[in-house]
């Protein structure tokens, strides 16, 4: 047990999928895994371990934003030995070519600040995905016929952003979408020599104002979970 995770040693698999929402973790575990066991519920942050095609997987909520994700990922890596960590979540589209419901596989995660800022100081470290996972996810998405984009995303600290100029610059520099967690996941994986990736569904669009109706979210979320699982065990 750690400060924020009540799991016993050995309860957490080496491969961990990380949705922001703990109820998404429950839904994904119940939908895609067999032999599912609840391994954490401290502070309502649900984590489940089960089997997928003969492979052991944990699906654990990360919470929203990099400070929350940092707590869980630090403990999953340092105390439970997680080796492959894949964020599955939603993002806002930032290019005309990116449509609501599309999947983004995040090659890099640009950010203004992260919990790691204090380490990097004046250095602009470039958080990037594990290439093997990235390639496997792109292949899995293509095989499924899911409309998928591979490229840079932006990990913001705010959902209600008062800086339209930043959004404009990110779009101008080809950033595909905005979310709030991937950059710190990539920082922590780099620091501890683990594999990390973020696979995201475009749930809303910053340029068009379009948003995915809630009844459509489950299906698109499901494609993303399958892509993440296939990439993890490719
Ligand atoms: N901004 C930040 N995070 C998000 C968004 C957004 O528009 N959509 C989904 N996650």
Describe the structure.
The mean pLDDT is 96. The chain has a five-stranded mixed β-barrel with strand order 5-8-7-6-9. It has one domain: Rossmann fold (3-Layer(aba) Sandwich), CATH 3.40.50. 35% of the residues lie in helices and 27% in strands. The two termini are 30 Å apart. By secondary structure, the protein is of the alpha/beta class. It is built from seven helices and nine strands, in the order βαβββαββααβαβαβα. The chain is globular, with a radius of gyration of 16 Å. It has helices at residues 22-32, 66-78, 117-120, 131-144, 164-172, 182-192, 214-232; strands at 15-18, 34-40, 47-52, 55-60, 84-93, 103-111, 148-155, 177-179, 195-205. The structure holds hypoxanthine (HPA).
């Amino acid at each position: 047990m750690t400060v924020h995770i009540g799991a016993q040693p050995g309860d957490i698999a080496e491969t961990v999928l990380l949705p922001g929402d703990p109820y998404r973790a429950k839904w994904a575990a119940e939908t895609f895994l067999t032999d599912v066991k609840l391994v954490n519920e401290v502070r309502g942050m649900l984590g489940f371990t089960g089997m997928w095609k003969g492979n052991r997987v944990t699906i654990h909520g990360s919470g929203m934003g990099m400070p929350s994700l940092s707590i869980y990922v630090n403990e999953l890596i340092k105390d439970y030995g997680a080796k492959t960590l894949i964020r599955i979540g939603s993002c806002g589209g930032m290019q005309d070519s990116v449509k609501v419901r599309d999947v983004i596989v995040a090659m890099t995660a640009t950010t203004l600040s992260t919990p790691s800022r204090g380490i990097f100081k004046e250095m602009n470290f470039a958080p990037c995905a594990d290439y093997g996972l990235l390639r496997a996810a792109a292949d899995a998405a293509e095989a499924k016929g899911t409309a998928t984009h591979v490229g840079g995303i932006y990990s913001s600290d705010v959902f209600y952003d008062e800086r339209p100029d930043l959004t404009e610059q990110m779009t101008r520099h080809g950033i595909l979408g905005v979310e709030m967690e991937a950059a710190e996941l990539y920082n922590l994986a780099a620091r501890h020599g683990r594999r990390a990736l973020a696979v995201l569904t475009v749930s809303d669009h910053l340029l068009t104002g379009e948003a995915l109706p809630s009844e459509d979210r489950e299906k698109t979320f499901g494609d993303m979970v399958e892509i993440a699982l296939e990439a993890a065990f490719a």
